[in-house]
Design brief:
The chain has 482 residues and is an alpha/beta fold. The chain folds into 3 domains: 116 residues, no CATH class; 208 residues, Medium-chain alcohol dehydrogenases, catalytic domain (Quinone Oxidoreductase, Chain A, domain 1); 124 residues, NAD(P)-binding Rossmann-like Domain (Rossmann fold, 3-Layer(aba) Sandwich), CATH 3.40.50.720. The chain is built from 15 helices and 21 strands. Strands 7, 9, 10, 11, 12, 19, 20 and 21 form an 8-stranded mixed sheet that branches. α1 packs across α2.
Length: 482
């Protein structure tokens, strides 16, 4: 049931004594006198906080029994009669300092109203246990995750931000999480929500947040960092000494809402859709970070070999073409992945088979200056090292296997093995700039959040080309390819 309630100024001749009684009578009038008696104490407490000197406009959303589920209200300031363009600002409990933007800083909107309700209910001490969301959670390692009903996250600190998830990327790391590979490093408390590639819209912000507002479109850096340690001070966010990693050691974004902080969000143009960009938060960022580091090694005429043109690799190919003038050769076992690489502009493609090593040597004229291994297991480590020329560099981005290399070979050939972990906040800003300009795009397969386990099975089976994207309550078919 949805009831519209319009209040009157306390000084009006038609106003009833007492604001609660006045609104109770309004409810009674709107429902033929049947519903007012069913107002819960919570409903009356909310109505009782309204300042009678202002005009209430809003909508109270009631569940069965008229229990409050959520409220979105704007309060029109009492200007002189007949003044046009009256300013709106959100509801606040009487006697409390206004925690919301004042007139002129933005009009009321449903998104802002939902955020206002969170703060109003908290100030009133109203339990909000009815507010639940869907989340994909790992309960036990080596078992499929579950789609659970859990409480929505809440603002706990002044720099916190709650984001309504528009899309969450599916990463091979999620498979490794389920297999327990990250337990020894991240020590998450089970059960918890996975998902570390996330984009959406700001729903609520802490009191100190000034870089984004409710309703803004954002992509989230994978790490929530402190900004105070030496790595943060030097711009190396990925190595923050106090970081938490949503999706790996705390609740992530394969859910309807997620908590992050002001340092992690990159504000985007509202025309950018979360489903088109979410996987750039980690897969894209990691690939871009590796290429960005290697740019000084890849002058015009240099050769770059990319192993794996899947979820990470196809972004690496685009990053190489955007940042360097190197000749790009892509190696993969999948013809579909190689066709995607050709469509993106790769200069050469090679099927990964026993003849691949000789073909790579021929194409590169004696070996690559840089090899980017986006697989990092199942033998690609040895393949990548063998494809290097003397003084070449092997950049490992994918993981799961082992790099086995004699120290004498490292010394005699003067080759480098370089690890790559996610990327910095600045890397993410640069990547989003390239994306906005159309120089980097994601090839994706979209699943509904409820189909997360099937998406993980498809990724594990190698039938998912590009990047898997999970969208809460996706409209239409539960499987869409872009």
């Amino acid at each position: 049931m949805v009831l519209g309630v319009r209040g009157r100024r306390a000084g009006d001749a038609s106003a009833k004594p007492g604001i609660v009684r006045g609104h109770t009578n309004a409810l009674s009038s709107a429902t033929g006198g049947k519903e007012a008696a069913r107002l819960t104490p919570v409903s009356k407490r909310i109505l009782g906080t309204l300042d009678g000197e202002r005009l209430l406009e809003g909508v109270v959303f009631l569940t069965m029994g008229l229990k409050i589920k959520s409220i979105a209200v704007g309060v029109r300031q009492d200007h002189a009669a007949g003044q046009a363009g009256a300013c709106h600002r959100p509801l606040r409990p009487a006697g409390h300092p206004a925690p919301f933007p004042q007139c002129g800083s933005g009009h009321w909107s449903p998104a802002r109203g939902r955020a206002d309700w969170e703060q109003v209910s908290r100030k009133l001490g109203i339990s909000n246990r009815e507010r639940a969301m869907k989340a994909v959670r790992v309960h036990r390692y080596h078992e499929d995750p579950h789609l659970d009903d859990v409480d929505e996250p809440r603002i706990d600190g002044p720099w916190d931000i709650i984001v309504e998830i528009g899309a969450a990327g599916l990463c091979r790391t999620d498979l490794h999480i389920v297999q327990g590979q990250w337990d020894a490093i991240q020590h998450p408390s089970l059960p918890y929500t996975i998902g570390h590639e996330n984009a959406g819209w700001v729903r609520e912000v802490g009191s100190a947040v000034g870089n984004v507002s409710p309703g803004d479109t954002v992509i989230m850096h994978p790490l929530v960092t402190c900004g105070l340690c030496l790595p943060c001070r030097s711009g190396q966010d990925s190595h923050c000494e106090n970081a938490v990693f949503p999706g790996l050691n705390v609740d992530g974004g394969m859910a309807q809402f997620m908590k992050t902080n002001a340092r992690a969000v990159v504000k985007l143009d509202p025309s950018m859709l979360p489903a088109d960009i979410a996987a750039l938060a980690d897969a894209g960022l990691t690939a871009y970070h590796a290429v960005r580091k290697a740019v000084p090694l890849l002058p015009p005429g240099a050769h770059a070999v990319v192993i794996g043109s899947g979820g990470l690799g196809h972004i690496g190919v685009q990053s190489l073409l955007a940042l360097t003038a190197a000749t790009v050769t892509v190696v993969d076992t999948s013809e579909a992945a190689l066709e995607l690489a050709r469509q993106l502009g790769a200069h050469h493609t090679v099927v990964s088979d026993p003849n691949a090593a000789a073909e790579l040597m021929d194409i590169t004229g004696g070996g690559a200056h840089v090899v980017f291994d986006f697989v990092g297991e199942h033998g690609t480590e040895a393949q990548g090292l063998a494809a290097l020329r003397n003084r070449g560099s092997y950049y490992t981005i994918g993981y799961g296997g082992k790099v086995e290399l004699e120290t004498l070979s490292i010394i005699s050939r003067e080759i480098n093995v370089v690890g790559n972990l996610v990327g910095t906040y600045t890397d993410l800003v640069e990547l989003m700039n390239l994306t906005a300009r159309g120089l980097v795009s994601l090839h994706t397969t979209v699943y509904d959040l409820a189909d997360a386990v099937q998406a993980m099975h498809d990724l594990d089976a190698g039938t998912l080309v590009g990047r898997g994207i999970l969208v809460p309550q996706a409209s239409g078919s539960s499987l869409q390819t872009h």
